[in-house]
Amino acid sequence: MRAAWAITSTTVKQLLGVRRMIVFGLAELAPAGVFLLMTQTLAEEAALDRLLGMVAALYFPLLVPIVTLIVAASALGDERRDGTLSFLVLRPIPRSVVALSKSAGAVIVAAGLNALGALALSAVYAVETGSWSMVVPLVVGGVVASVVYAALFVPLGFFTDRAVLAGLAFVFIFENSVVSALSGLSSLSPWRIGLSAFAGLAPGEVATELADFGAASLSGSGAALFRTVLIAAISVGATTMVLRRRDLA
Amino acid sequence: MTERGVVFDLGYVPYEGERRARRGAIATTYRDGIYRVFGIRRRARKKILPWMLVVLALLPAVVFVGFAFLLSTFSPEADSPFGGHGEYFSITGGIVLLFVALAGPELLIPDRREGVLAIYSSRPLKPDDYIGARAASLLTVVAGFMLIPQVLMYIGFAALSSDGFFSALVDNADEIPKILVTTVVYAVAIAPLVLLISTIASRKAAATGIYLGVLIVGTGLAAALVEATTLPGSRYAALLAVGEHADFVRDWIFGLAVSSDRVMANAGFDPWVSLGVIAAIAVASSIFVVWRYRRLM
Amino acid sequence: MTANPALVESPTVELDDASKWFGQKVAVSNVTCSFGPGVTGLLGPNGAGKTTMLRMLTGLIRPSQGSVRVLGVWPRTSPSVYADVGLVPEEAAVYPSLTAREYVRYAATLSGIADVAEATDRAIDTVGLGGPADRKLAGYSKGMRQRAKVAAALVSDPQILLLDEPLNGTDPVQRLHLINLFQRLGAEGRTLIVSSHILDEVDRMSDRVIAIVDGRLAAAGDVAAIREAMTDIPYRVRIESDTGRVLAARLLEEALVHGVSVDDRILLVETSDLAALGRRVPAVAREVDARITSFQPEDASLESVFRYLVRR
To answer: In 3-state terms, what secondary structure has residue C17?
Structure first.
């Protein structure tokens, strides 16, 4: 347990340098800043429309994947490329603990940053409408999407230093083009899983209204959480297998 | 030979050839930059992605020319499924963005991370020479990406024209300055920003992600601000649509109809404003990059 | 002592017909040897396969053929054995954002040490990094990083220590300190395998050497025994005498002398039995009334042995 915590906390420290915090922090707060400016001239009832527009067109499909991708691809990949992986694996701890702790570190950083963005967006909405009902759903949705993306990109980052580009191709070509055309594949789209979690927890007919923004076939928060846990478990298992079987030097 | 020591001739022969000094060092750094981004003289794995993007950039032009050849009757612009030269820049523009997102970090970050800047400094190479050579490599690559398919199409159109090859070359000669100017615009719009980000970021993956993020998310935010607010001055947010200034200028040069989702047009700006933004970003980026490397080397 | 000098009694680390290839390149080829308590030098030219061997021993890479055992198991399948194994890798891979103290503490925590703070302080003091221990590793010189890596390997008090070029970048004082440390650890009964190019220092700290050339086991045992085993390469002995030519002429009559070259006062004598020559030369010198001022084997050192092994 102590070892797992040590790996996780060191990973968080490595992934969150001062420069990254500033850049990612600004990126996460930017949509809220834009939304704030928008609300200055909007009627209250239009605020929900605009919030959902920001969420479905910017936050989930662009911001969450890009931030998580950069963070998660570094978590294990940089250890391998910098030659410090032997420091971790030549310890009397199971490889599964290394895989889980590294993934947890990536999730904490990515989810933390994306939660900041979600919090900022929903806080602006709350200030404008007096309703704080979007805070928890949006933060949960952002965290869920972060977990799924991290689960995919931590092992990808281990295998290639082009993980960011491969991930962006996945996001823009597969998720934002192919899945948009073939809605039956939406359960394979991490940001739509996050959006489902948000829609399922949000009050009112958010899920229906999100369909106007092209986010169709949302499955509900329960299904989203189940898929998240499943994908994360498979990812940790696969990463463990790789650490056990592959030559690591 | 002295009383206390002697040196034996073991066959060492000092280099007596030409010493190319500073110009040679600059040329070598420039050439190394091009080799590096294409993975030349590196493992096969390093070549896959860049050459795949080259093929993607050329393929539509080759397909179109081949398609027109098979049809036997040919009338350029009107029959082109890809539109003309102007529209083709959209295809190559997207691909070159991906290439530059990989190439920019590859040119600058490994030398810093691996601590070899000192080796460059120990040669007759000033910091400005080094960064100038790297920038020149990137600009050459971008220009090549944009120009080569255009040349292919231009010559292909002319070769298949019913008016005869040389007549078609002359008749369509007015496209040449447009192609050249648009190429320069894209190169200046794309390259300096990625070099700026690669100067700040310490990891290639982060630089790639941040660059594409700035282009994509920045443009999205600018569009949101312009289209959804009526606050005084909100139109100036369109200047943040970094990803579309080159396209807007291209539309202007080729006289193409402006797309309805063109943020700058929606904000009421003229294309020369985009040109100004491109120039300003290029100048500001260049100043910062040169300043940073003068401190590092 | 076993019959095969490449094997030891009561081994803690064993390779049994171990090979490793990467595509067409064979890095280690059919190596059978073992290591026990004490310091063993692992020698070989660049690219000989020493680092590959160490990586197999730690379980970082899998042997393509044969087996590797550390304390009776292959570490990859039994991570618990890592509590007794420390590695100081050749590459300068540390975490630049951590201080040396944080780095060693991290190693201690991952190794399951109960009193992490005490173990950290002890390891840092052992390698002499007490003063700069709270500076970030990014600002360390190569030698200081090396000491930080040694501290991280020692913090868990391992029974087996694998050191790949541990003296790289260290200054002479640090080097002497580390050599004394390794000798002490070896004397305590731990198994140390030291891969190094600094031959005279390996000579000083090792009880035994394993030489690898082109991925194959080239020699094993103590240096003098390996040299003696090179019966196809006679010893060259440098003798200084006031009557060089007279002594040379008399030595040529001895059966154990293969050849003599003489330059006034300096003789270079070739023999296949160094010890016997050492006993015979004084008697011969008395016969011809020659005074011997120096008797020095020129190629019995580890460096000479290494050179001969590489040339074969």
So the answer is: strand
